[in-house]
Structures are given as C-alpha cells and as structure tokens.
Amino acid sequence: MSTQQLTSNKAIINWLLTGCFLIYIMVVVGCLTRLTHSGLSITDWSFMGSIPPLNDEMWQERFQKYQQSPEFIKINYNMTLTEFKPIFLWEYIHRLIGRTIGYVFLGGFLYFLLIKRFSKDMLVSMIILFFMGAMQAVIGWWMVYSGLQKQPAVSHYRLATHLISAFTLFAFTFWFALKLINKPLVIEKENEGYKLKTISVIYFVVLILQIIYGAFTAGFVEGDSAKIRPGHIFNTWPKMGDSWTAEQVYMKENFSQNILTNPSGIQFVHRTLALILVGFVLYIWYKSNQLKLNSKQTTGVSLIIYGITIQFILGVFTLIYQVPVILGVLHQSGAFFLFGASVYLIFHIFKPLNKH
Description:
The chain is mostly helical. It is 67% helix and 2% strand. The protein has helices at 3-8, 10-35, 56-67, 70-74, 81-114, 120-145, 156-181, 197-218, 255-260, 263-288, 295-320, 325-349, and strands at residues 185-186, 221-222, 227-228, 353-354.
C-alpha cells in the first residue's frame, strides 16, 4: 500500500478504530452491568430505541414492569424505586452504547459506500462486519431473555457467547484496520517472525478458551441447591481452600459435566488455563529473544508480556477479594487489552509480504 493509498483510507481507518474503542467501552459497561446485577432490569427488547424515564410516572411504569420479572419476585422483592433507578440506568447505558455502535457502523458504511471509497475486497469485509455487529445485538437480547423466564439468572453459556462475539467483532474490526494501516513488507531475509506462527496460534486459541471460561466463571451455574457464580467460591490462591485441587472439582459424574456445569470445576479450569497462558507467553518471549524480528513483531511480543503479567495479577486479586466491582472491571479490561495485543502480534507475524 502506498502512502497515497494510506492517506485516502485514513477516514476508513479512523472509523474502524472508533468502532474498536466503542466495542471496548461496551464490554466494560457490560461488565459493570453484570457486577452491579443490572442486566435484568429492563425487561423488553423494544426499549432499545426508547428515551430514559424523565419523570415519576415514567419511572413507575418501568419499575412496575420490573416487578413482574422473576428477579424481582424471587430476589429483589424488597427493592424500592430509588434502589431500582441505578441498576436500570446501567443497563440503559449498556444498550445505548450498543445502539451507538450500530449507528457508527451503519452510518460509516453507507457514507463510504455512497462516496465509493470501498474497493471490492473492502466491501465484502464491511458487509460481514455489519452483520456481525447486528448479530451481537441479537445475541445480547437472547442472553438477557434467558434470565427473564422462570429463573432470574443468565445462562453462563449465553453470557460466554455474548462476550466472545463482542471480542470477535473487535478482532475483525481491528484486523481490517491494521491491514489498511500497514503496507505489505518486502521480504527481509533476517526476519524470522514466521517461526512464531504455530506457537502464537496455539497460544491465541488457548486465550480464546480462557476468555470463554472467564465468562463461565462470572456467570451463574447450577450448584447443589441454587445457581451460583464460580468466581465467588474458593476465594483463595494458589490453593482452592486447603487443597491444590478441591474435591468439589470432581463432584459430577463425568469429565464434561465437571468442566462445563460444575462451578468448582469451571473455576479450576479457569485457574489452570491462566497458568498455561503464562507458560505460553514465557516460551514466546524466550523464543523471540533467539530470533531476528522486526520492530512491530517485537512490540507485539512485549505487549503480550506486559498484558499477561498485569492480567494474571488482577485475576488473583479479583479472586481473593471476591470480585469487587473495580477489580472485576479492571480484570475484564485486562483481558481485552491482552486480546487486542495478541491480535496485533499475530497480524504482524502473518502480515502479507511482497516478494522481490
């Protein structure tokens, strides 16, 4: 890509990076919505396009709808209107940001389409990007809907689907922005970044699995007598209580149940994957010191080293202090940063090259 092409694509690049930032804000506010138990406060899909309550009558109307929900009937039956307002506003802000993302993506897409700024290969990618954004909204409602039925708890499977779809949307948007920012390189004989391809992909797959288990740990899972959050049990580290592996990890009949529907097993997997990821990053660090990498590949390696270090420490403290709001948000932000840094590294390892 020439400098002239980069300049001509600057507006598209800024549009895509703005989308990346809004997705990050959406994930953070989504985390706050979950940690403040606000996600089930709005009980209808049509509210997506509504203005917030502006007077007592409108607030009473929203509160009366919430009072008919399983969460109010079974858990928050003593809640007052004053207590309802903050949780409503968190969910409202979360949905408003989602709506803003839709406007940004659709508005930008139509604008650049009308002025014929998209090339043919760009257009296909942009259409895919638009439908991915639309699916994120649908998945969000599908997730909330699961908590508006008989049990006032969002399925941990649906929570994980909603989270990983947001990360996937970010990865796709960020990758395309990187393609427009970075022109193809001439092959450098001394560049040995290709030797990190396999290990980087394996590491990235494990990272995605860890993000999924992070959502499992944050969600509600059926326990012995009630739905519980795996992140709120065994709040000790490095041991689970008095043992390295608590007996409850194996309480289910088979392996798949223990790692998918057993709260203790889910937390154990999340702990274990964290250690595995640290091992992968240490190996990538060690391997990269033996190879001749270009500056951006070196930057990518440095970013994941910093990212995994901060994220691991945040994870431990979040667990020990039983998931306070501020640490929960920082931990989710750390996951987002590490994910973005990993996309950056993999892009520059697999970056298209011009053969001369």
